[in-house]
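Quick question: what would this complex look like in 3D?
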Amino acid sequence: MTPEPVPVRPVRVVKETPLSFLAKSVHFLKRYIRFAFAFRLDLAMTLLGLLATTTMWAVMAGLVGPAAAPRLSAHGYGDDYFSFLLLGLMVNSYLWIPLRKLYSALQSQWGSGWLDFMLLTPSSPLSHLFGPQSYDFFMATVQVSFQLTVGYIFFGFEASPTANIPGALLVLILGLLSMVGWGLLAASTFTLLNAKGGGNPVAWFLTTFTPLLAGVYYPPELLPGWLRTVSYLLPHTHAMKGIRKALLEGATIKTLLPSITALITLGAIIVPLGYLAFKHSIKKGKKDGSILPW
Amino acid sequence: MSLMVEVRGLVKRFPRERMGSLGASWDIYLQGLRQLIRHREYGEGEDDDRLVTVLDGVDLGVGDGEFFGLLGPNGAGKSTLIKILCTLLLPDGGEAYLNGFNVVEYPSHVKASISVMVSQGLRGFDQTLSARHNLEFFASLYNMRGRRARERIDRALGIVDMAGDADRRMNVLSSGQKQRVALARGLVLDAPVLLMDEATVMLDPRAAREFRSYVQALNREEGKTVLWCTHLTHEAEELCHRVAILDRARVTACDTPHNLTARMRDVSLLEIEVSGIHHDGGPPPVEPLSTRILDPADGRTLYRIKTDQTDTPRRLLAEMSHWVERNGGDLLMAREVVPSLEDVFMYTTGRPMG
């Protein structure tokens, strides 16, 4: 690159910093909350739907719980199937956010004409995709808190008295970081595979096989040997295992080390891969025009 | 005068088979993967028949503070040029500089130097939020916060006369007001260059006139450089200090509107209006520069005919009169007219604008 030229008219070039990135996420959050409050009944209906599904899980857990309890405790997941299931589903709902929403943010911004304006701003393309996630995480937290409260008050959800909350949060964050890599891979299919129709092939693959492999509904240790090996390639498996053990058994950081190490290793592979694929997809989109709707 | 926009030998090619949103299907992903592999050398071969050339060695220079028009029919390459200048597309050849910065090497500097408005300028606005809330959000994307952002937004809304309606939801504003909010969005940044791509296409004539006057005032009073892309010759004539005619991926002429029309100084134009010509009467005896059917019911047609020292207006009028008479029609009007930019376009490219 040649030395920076002298502009005809002076301009203030804005550089992306962690602070500006955070500020943008807050603005995205404010924007979506304003939007959500324009449709308040939708919010109420979402909570009503969550109440219905939590009740359904509680009834199902009541049915299979007594039979499942010995096998759960044998693998270190406590002895309450409802708590096991509720935590698994909630971790799952957090981990899906980067996988699904990075792609869907790109797709909806492309379709609505936002994307070109976003790309014209000094913000990096990544901040346009990560910004809207602030609202998704906010909403997921509202929903998870609601479900835990309902589960605790009505259906006997119980964490260990020695629950390791910081350990669970650490595992959740590492799981989310790994999923960011998968999310970037998913977003890159938008131009690389022309996946503009909302299909998200990467998410399809993972959402189809994760419930089978990662242990959302049962401990992954119950899987046949070769399937168990495949399940270790998914961040979900390690995130769910670590969080359940931390909250239901009060596992210490030392006990959680295998999950933490696995998540760091998976993240170290998938995050750079996802970043490179996304960077290449933006370059391809700008080269052949496939990233622009106009 | 320093050049605010400089384009040298710019080339852009696209794959012939560009695919839009085709729905969600594994067959489409597979097709996309095949295309990805097939186009891995895309843009490297000039004679590649899989590619269509949209810009073919375009040269342009726009001075600081100039109101510059890019005139051409749909598909001429205007939008592609704008997209390259605003860093949304990468060129395949040549160089482009904006505010002195190479658009490929210094995209952040270029983005800080431009405000862009396209015909679909209303896209990207949340219709359920107020104009002000939308602008606050866009200001945040430029890292503007707090008092600075509020001041910029108030100023931008004031310039486009939208201060009084800023707190109304976007979906209750008229099209003209929405377009003014879109202009205000660009002004929040206070960039020295305005890139306008068919910015008035969606507006009714009155709103379009008002909008043009706002942009003209920004050029005149604030010294903004304006690159105004249009297919409307009257806009280019009315607004621009200089106009480049872009046709089929190339710039065919570039000068002031006056000088462009003066190129036809030795060519006067004869405008003849006729009606009731028999269909079997054949074409006119002289080839018109343009033919416009005014009323298909009675065959009322307006011909513009190029005249010169050999084909004098008097001689051509006589020939046309005989042809009209022979075919049972009426000659309604004949007059000599001053050439317009539309005539210049047809004269230089050999085909009409539309």
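Answer marked as accepted. Chain B touches chain A through 66 residues (CB under 8 Å).
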